[in-house]
Amino acid sequence: MGDSSTNSNRVKLPDGRFLAYRESGVPKEEAKYKIILVHGFGSSKDMNFSASKELIEELGVYFLFYDRSGYGESDSNTKRSLASEVDDIAELADQLEIGPKFYLIGISMGSYPTWGCLKHIPHRLSGVAFVAPVVNYQWPSLPKKLIKKDYRRDILKWCLRISKFAPGLLHWWVIQKVFPSTSSVFESNPVYFNSQDMEVLKRITGFPMLTKDKLQEREVFDTLRDDFVACFGQWDFEPADLNITQESSVHIWHGKEDKVVPFQLQRTILQNQPLINYHEIPQGGHLIVHYDGICDSILRALLLGEEQTLYKPILQLNI
Q: What dihedral do alpha carbons 273, 125, 253, 295 form, nearest 10°?
């Protein structure tokens, strides 16, 4: 876990924790657009967002990647919550002086801090893109007939209960039953990934934090557990409650073959928030952020408002 002795660039938060970060793209002082990227479960600031160098320079984009608390080289936060994740983002933006407003891109489980920012600091956001965002099954607006028989909901409910009342038992169960070998249970597993995702996993690092060896470290396990609970536990709002307008420039990118988060759940969000721009990838799985051309499409839609010809938003929201 992170500490103050790391050699990475870092900022010190008001509570004494350190957040590690890295910068990419054009120099901050020359940038027209400034984007903070929020990584997902088991990832880090070293995640790859493969937008083309030509487009980044053409648009003048500055990227700020950071290790969320407990990940990579950032200090753990034993009081992690949705609100604390929002505070970390706002404090990081202030200390690095990226300006009063910025863009956010939330990837997979990095979506819950991103929704939190839309709720608590909407005035700081120029626009937001969610990429394969997770869904909290406790959101009241989700149709019960849609989620009633979803096995993912039952698994999440069980894990939340054990996380709260018997975290030691959960740690044992994950090590002994979920991770029978030293490799990551998520890598090359058709339960979670479609054929395009499997091809992606052949050329990227995958999920090095989600291996049996890493999870045997209790501090690593506790970070993942606390992140999981903050994401899938009780919120004080849901996306349906937010005041999202056309000017909010909110986008959701999701694969129709995503096996981690069913596309039908994303479509229900749009029934309550019709001004969200929804981009559905017909053969896309959960790892669409790594597909060729997707990152360029995300930037063009988010920053320029361009309608994509390769990945058009779905207009018929038949669930």
A: 160
